[in-house]
Amino acid sequence: PNHRVVWPSAVVFDLAQALRDGVLLCQLLHNLSPGSIDLKDINFRPQMSQFLCLKNIRTFLKVCHDKFGLRNSDLFDPFDLFDVRDFGKVISAVSRLSFHSIAQTKGIRPFPSEETTENDDDVYRSLEELADEHDLGEDIYDCVPCEDEGDDIYEDIIRVEVQQPMKMGMTEDDKRNCCLLEIQETEAKYYKTLEDIEKNYMNPLRLVLTPQDMEAIFINLEDLIKVHFSFLRAIDVSMMSGGSSLAKVFLEFKERLLIYGKYCSHMEYAQNTLNHLLANREDVRQKVEECTLKVQDGKFKLQDLLVVPMQRVLKYHLLLKELLSHSSDRPEKQQLKEALEAMQDLAMYINEVKRDKETLKKISEFQSSIENLQVKLEEFGRPKIDGELKVRSIVNHTKQDRYLFLFDKVVIVCKRKGYNYELKEIIELLFHKMTDDPMNNKDIKKWSYGFYLIHLQGKQGFQFFCKTEEMKRKWMEQFEMAMSNIKPEKANANHHNFQMYTFEKTTNCKACRMFLRGTFYQGYLCPKCGAGAHKECLEIIPPCKIGSSADQDSLSAGPGPKMVAVQNYHGNPAPPGKPVLTFQIGDVIELLRGDPDSPWWEGRLLQTKKSGYFPSSSVKPCPVDARPPNSRPPSREIDYTAYPWFAGNMERQQTDNLLKSHVSGTYLIRERPAEAERFAISIKFNEEVKHIKVVEKDNWIHITEAKKFESLLELVEYYQSHSLKESFKQLDTTLKYPYKSRERSTSRTFTRSP
């Protein structure tokens, strides 16, 4: 009712803005016919994501066609709404819904009425331009279910008759006692509610529901009951001695209450599962109605009761805040402050876990829509923004339509293919800086608002073009935020080397002692000393305990030097008390830490991304020339003989005979001195040997114009972890096994002693 669309001053563009993300349209179908649309398919907070908005709109269109019988000709293209290209068609589709028999049985007045004579074209003509000027912002989400959902129900269920501490004439002690009593009595009422759910719903419903459905609906409610049995007893014991130790009870239970993270983050799915079962199974509906009559005379539905635990755990800090305000002269005041901070921290942790659950769902949807993607997107951090831009590589100079997904660590560049996307490029932000391109902004044409992503070591850069100045501002803002997350300004404060990190166990910040919140990339880890921290706390962390020399810091900051293995290392001898990194001759290792005088170095194997320790004598620096492209020698002048994939001068027929006996994925690079292109990649794929020419042009080297490299070594490293399918659709394999390594391992197999 408070939405600006129903304000007297509202205009048609306000309605267009409110509908553009598809959320309200999906909720409309759910309200017309509960169960017609699976609420799990709706993204309720698709901020900054064109992908998720369009997915919501397509979900609406599919249900209109499949469940409500609207013809495709009665509907609209998703971009007619998202870009507001033809809002008249959108209104026409909603109008047809208003005449549907389902809407009529609900007493909805159909529109337009016969007396409507306004010219639609005049009304809708300027909307697309307005949509360009007013990008989808976060202010349209005031119609989405919010954190306070269920508050009224909670108050009804947990209400206790406690004398209010604000009455005139009460002493501070009286007020404090009222607060203590409220905490104790509401906790008892809450525990009784949990028991009611278990006794009157969970136990009877086990007769008609599968264990999977039971877990989906009730989550970890049995664990909550066990914790609150102990929690209530501890509160009661504290109250027997006047409540002075109540703060200690909250501090002691903080860790045990972390299980609410799971309960609250699965709440939406639980409600959706329950609603789906009630709409589709008569036996479940009857059993739930029968159970409802046994709880408080049927006053509350199961859906209402399931929300209560989430409301209760988010109330603890409010109850303690009130208690603290009436305990100013009490000896336990400091401990109460700590308990209040602990419960505030718990509430923030739970909310962050809920948000991360939603975020991982979004990432999963991105993942399933991008073809050729060989990596898990969640490894790249949180998504920041996605949408259509025009991209020009500084090498290629051609402006191309591309769809970008920006994460904390990378930007994924794709080409749109219907409703899916084909991966073209993964750009690591760690190695780039962003600069504005103010010159283009003077051009008033669309798609002329640009900015650059420049490689820090002078490699291939990119120029991005946005449709409007507002769109450019938003993208640059999100790029800045992502780069600030992956390269925080204070990452190396006090000799640390903090990196964004996913903590498997719940961890406290080394500085403020509060939780690192959420389920992935919760904060920053210094791999040298093991300290974890919030981004905002990096500057105040105590100095790193391990090695603060300038040499170590300079080595740890950013990507380390590349080394090539000159001998096999399988973990013998083992580094004392350290994880082992095994490799074979020719493998390339990024050095993470290594004192020139130490027999053990730490590194990361580029092909597998595994890290660990190895003998410093088993590697040597990679023979890669670091001069800029125009002053580097051509690839043919670099000596590649040390690499296990380099075969030297070899004819095609000889290569076929050599690779035929090897497993799929075995490859070599051979020289072709008589040909214009000096190198070729030969790879066994399934039962055939394929040959790919390597082109050298303008001091760059490539097998496809879309992806260029400075050297043959860089090209090989890239395709060791990226499928050749990016360039050749029928060749879905990486460069897996250098042929010399395969031959050595085969010969070892046959010569090993019995």
From TrEMBL:
Domain Calponin-homology (CH): residue ranges: 1-101
InterPro entries found in the cross-reference section: CH_CAMSAP_2, CH_dom, CH_dom_sf, DBL_dom_sf, DH_dom, GDS_CDC24_CS, PH-like_dom_sf, PH_domain
Domain Phorbol-ester/DAG-type as annotated: residue spans: 495-544
Keyword Coiled coil: yes
Annotated ranges, domain DH: 175-353
Domain SH3 residues, every copy: 558-624
Claim: Coiled coil is one of the keywords in the record: yes
Top-rank taxon: Eukaryota
Key words of the record: Coiled coil, Guanine-nucleotide releasing factor, Metal-binding, Phosphoprotein, Repeat, SH2 domain, SH3 domain, Zinc, Zinc-finger
Organism listed in the record: Oceanodroma tethys (Wedge-rumped storm-petrel)
PH domain ranges (all copies): 382-484
Gene Ontology BP annotations: cell migration; intracellular signal transduction
Family matches, as Pfam families: C1_1, CAMSAP_CH, PH, RhoGEF, SH2, SH3_2
Name the UniProt record assigns to this protein: VAV2 factor
